[in-house]
Amino acid sequence: MKVFVQKVWLFCLTLLLCSAWYLPKGADAADFSQAQLKLMSTFVSNFTELGLMNFDIKKGSSGKVRHLGGDPSNPELILFGIMHNYVNNFKSRIKPCPTQGCVHGPRVIDAKYVVESVKKYFDINLKNPRVKQSDQPYYFDGKLYHFADTDGEFVYYAEVKQATQKGGIVRMTGDIYNADDKNDRPFTFVATAKPYKWNGKDTWAILSLRTTKR
Questions:
Q1: Which end of the chain has less neighbouring CB within 10 Å, N or C?
Q2: Which residues are bridge partners to 165 per DSSP?
């Protein structure tokens, strides 16, 4: 009988250890590798390089915080999709305006790329791609967005120094630095995102970003 109890106890202990071994990291908290922090830095930089420093995709705007996601037709989401591709996919996705005179600007991008970028980084499906009002004018002709070139401005990137995960939300903190001078770090930031799969790959969808001046 004693041997039987010992075997049962060992079996239960083995099950417990196996459960702990296979428990997905981040169920309550997570330690991220330097490689993962670097990927997070690139992820957050997709927003900071466009000047999107303070926003929340679910809550209304407050002060300098921009409201991006409550309305899937929000023009700022469309502008993100346009400018993200302008900065990162200029040669492959940005084309010269095919219309003579180009009254709406010399550049165009197919709307499918704008929709794709918004889905990739926000996990939001654009419902009204025809919205035209925004800080930077653009025009939608039913297939293409027409817009003007942008002037060169300071570009800022993000460096994620620490990240934790709890309740399915990843919290990333770090510095905002000048792309031309990595020692110029005028802001710190806190970003939240949810783990997300895009085209079968693990990534994140942004939820909020807050920056604070040093």
A1: N
A2: 170
Question: Residue ranges of the chain with pLDDT lower than 50?
Answer: 1-29, 60-65, 70
3-class DSSP assignment, residue 51 = coil
Q: Are 188 and 214 in contact (CB under 8 A)?
A: yes
Bridge-based pairing of strands 156-166 and 138-140 is unpaired
Q: How far apart are CA 117 and CA 145, in angstroms?
A: 14
The residue count of the chain comes to 214
| CB-CB contact of 47 with 83 (8 Å) | no
Single out the residue of 39, 36, 34, 44 nearest to residue 176, CA to CA: 44
Q: Pull the structure tokens for residue 151.
A: 């002037």
pLDDT at 132: 53
* CB of 197 closer than 8 Å to CB of 35: no
pLDDT in tens, 165-197: 999 999 999 999 999 999 999 999 999 999 999
pLDDT for 134: 55
Question: DSSP string spanning 134-196?
Answer: SSS-EEE-SSEEEE--------EEEEEEEEEEETTEEEEEEEEEETTBTT---EEEEEEEEEE
